[in-house]
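Worked example 3 (structure in, sequence out).
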């Protein structure tokens, strides 16, 4: 015999009022908890689902709720599991876990209206906690639905006995939310804020993107991610795709397996990078999504770091700009770039040679290949630029292939990955070409290093912004030559020039839905994607990036010459006071006006009294109809029928919003006929 017997579904319209309201509330709770699933431990998800299903089964079967000690036992187990999972009961993660469990368990105590109010409170609290993890447009839309559902359940909790429909309660909840929307917008625009709205969630903890290290295949993994890395809006000219290199971490150390940055101590005696620019600065605005790094992926080359509220930005001798802490929030700032530049020391130093020009002993075969190349008479005394051109020509004509899925390298020995790529299989992604190029250049006694970042943008701007995606992640190389400094070399351009010249990225196979849409109408798929990007961009610019500076700019537009926080607070207080006064006047007027239903019923009661039928103010139309028939007999049936129809219109399942004037006229006609027969 199963522990939980199946309960037949009678149909939504045939459910009792309490059962219907309980199932609706359980659905709203499940919807509210749904965005939390990626952040909850597995046991919490299973426990919450089991409790909600159990409560739904009890509602359908009209069975008794479990005893208090059962709930206490489950709560103790949940607390122990929370401690076991997080190591504490304090903090964001354990707090959200316990809040989800508490709300699920509270549904097993829905015996009175006050219990329902506790569930509503926990539900609104969980809606707020969703924004601790993400404030994206999708989460915001989902939480709007959750707010509407909880407000609808709150309306149902106050409904009188009867069969009010969910549609009626939902419309009332929607109107209530719309009435409160202007206050919400006012508070959003004028309420002084300590930090930007998006400063709270730590989205970067689960974000994908560049890292401070690089292994064979790591950039290809990022290229599978089509999410937005940052958006750009240029002031004036837009550079061509082949000039859009966004500099990220610079990697100079290689142990045969992994590329890592050169420690700061190893470069202590290297002169600070000298940047020489030969063109006018290109100004642009960047909206950067959260990342796990401190490096700002600025367009090469930036002579000055951007000013970012809440962050200290410093430059380094490898032309990077870093913040003092990891970027765990969305940033918007303006920056300048010089596309025609030179950088780096002009003269060699021992530290430069030791840090960047050593031959990696882990790649003996490429080193031997480089030595053979160097022994050619034409290259015996060649400079770094000539050697770089020779290596690039070898890549261009050596049968190399560019692919997003080259397969694993170095399965038997990770140190042989470069050897296998350069001399055997010859297929790879950008990091394979960049790493091999640097190893070969070092073997030729030329200082070289790997640079990671992004290259190119989407072809067409969306709402004036060019989008750079994680799939634009790229790796290229730099080699050093005396008198000139560091020079960019992109081996990927030698084997796949369309990747750099037209930002044509390799794309992974689409999913089932995207593949079906793309097969039917590629233009439709692109329009849907552009539309969603447009909505996301406007959400980011108008809502998530609305900051303290925007508030003060708004006051300037309103006529304040030198706005301050005092002016902002005073304006907010004045507007709220005016709204409160308007609300009080409306309440006073509403209190003194007569409800049309009350006016109609009072006229009918007065007419009944004239016919000799007592009619008290608290009596419903059905009671008056029964009394009229008992006192006046058969002739009063038409009059009683009108009263019963009026009761259905006022209190029935499909109650009307306003009284039907035709019923008043029919009642008067029936009353006159009754008087003539007496």
């Amino acid at each position: 015999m199963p522990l939980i017997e199946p309960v037949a579904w009678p149909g939504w319209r045939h459910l009792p009022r309490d059962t219907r309201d309980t199932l609706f509330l359980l659905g709203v709770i499940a919807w509210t908890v749904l965005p939390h699933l990626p952040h909850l431990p597995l046991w919490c998800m299973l426990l919450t689902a089991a409790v909600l299903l159990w409560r739904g089964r009890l509602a359908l079967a009209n069975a008794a709720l479990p005893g208090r000690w059962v709930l206490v036992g489950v709560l103790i187990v949940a607390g122990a599991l929370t401690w076991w999972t997080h190591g504490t009961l304090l903090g964001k993660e354990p707090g959200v876990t316990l809040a989800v469990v508490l709300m699920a368990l509270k549904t097993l105590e829905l015996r009175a209206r006050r219990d329902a109010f506790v569930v509503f409170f926990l539900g609104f609290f969980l809606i707020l906690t969703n924004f601790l993890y993400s404030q994206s447009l999708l989460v915001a839309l989902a939480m709007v639905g959750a707010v509407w559902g909880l407000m609808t359940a709150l309306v149902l909790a106050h409904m009188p006995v009867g069969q009010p429909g969910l549609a009626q309660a939902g419309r009332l909840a929607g109107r209530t939310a719309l009435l409160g929307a202007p206050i919400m917008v006012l508070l959003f625009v004028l309420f002084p804020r300590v930090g930007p709205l998006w400063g709270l969630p730590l989205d970067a903890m689960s974000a994908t993107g560049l890292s401070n290290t690089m292994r064979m295949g790591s950039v290809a993994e990022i290229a599978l991610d089509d999410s937005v890395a940052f958006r750009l809006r240029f002031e004036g000219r837009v550079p061509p795709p082949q000039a859009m290199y966004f500099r990220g971490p610079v990697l100079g150390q290689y142990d045969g397996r992994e590329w890592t940055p050169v420690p700061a101590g190893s470069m202590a005696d290297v002169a600070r990078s000298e940047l020489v620019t030969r063109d006018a600065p290109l100004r642009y605005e960047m909206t950067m999504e959260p990342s796990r790094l401190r490096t700002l992926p600025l367009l090469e080359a930036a002579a000055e770091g951007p000013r970012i509220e809440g962050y200290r930005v410093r430059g380094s001798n490898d032309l990077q700009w870093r913040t003092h802490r990891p970027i765990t929030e969305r940033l918007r700032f303006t920056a300048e770039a010089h596309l025609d530049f030179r950088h780096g020391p002009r003269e060699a130093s021992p530290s430069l040679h030791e840090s960047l020009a050593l031959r990696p002993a882990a790649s003996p075969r490429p080193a031997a290949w480089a030595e053979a190349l160097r022994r050619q008479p034409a290259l015996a005394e060649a400079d770094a630029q000539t050697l770089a051109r020779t290596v690039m020509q070898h890549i261009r004509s050596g049968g190399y292939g560019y692919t997003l899925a080259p397969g694993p390298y170095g399965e038997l020995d990770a140190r042989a990955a470069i050897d296998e790529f350069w001399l055997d299989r010859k297929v790879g992604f950008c990091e394979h070409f960049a790493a091999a190029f640097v190893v070969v250049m070092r073997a030729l006694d030329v200082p070289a290093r790997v640079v990671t970042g992004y290259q190119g943008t989407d072809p067409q701007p969306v709402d004036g912004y060019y989008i750079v995606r994680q799939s634009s992640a790229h790796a290229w190389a730099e080699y050093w030559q005396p008198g000139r400094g560091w020079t960019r070399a992109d081996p990927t351009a030698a084997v796949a020039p369309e990747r750099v010249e037209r930002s044509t990225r390799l794309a992974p196979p689409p999913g089932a839905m995207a593949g079906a849409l793309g097969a039917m109408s590629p233009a439709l798929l692109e329009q849907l994607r552009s539309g969603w990007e447009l909505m996301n961009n406007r959400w980011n610019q108008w809502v998530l990036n609305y900051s303290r500076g925007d508030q003060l700019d708004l006051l300037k537009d309103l006529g304040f010459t030198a706005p301050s926080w005092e002016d902002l607070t005073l304006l907010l207080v004045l507007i709220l006071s005016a709204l409160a006064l308007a609300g009080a006047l409306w309440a006073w007027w509403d209190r003194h006006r007569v409800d049309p239903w009350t006016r109609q019923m009072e006229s009918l009661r007065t007419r009944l009294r004239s016919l000799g039928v007592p009619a008290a103010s608290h009596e419903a139309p059905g009671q008056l109809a029964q009394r009229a028939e008992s006192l006046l007999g058969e002739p009063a049936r038409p009059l009683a029928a009108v009263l019963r129809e009026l009761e259905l219109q006022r209190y029935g399942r499909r109650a009307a919003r306003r009284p039907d004037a035709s019923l008043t006229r029919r009642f008067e006609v029936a009353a006159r006929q009754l008087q003539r027969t007496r």
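Notes: The CA atoms of residues 454 and 474 lie 5 Å apart. The first helix runs from residue 17 to 33.
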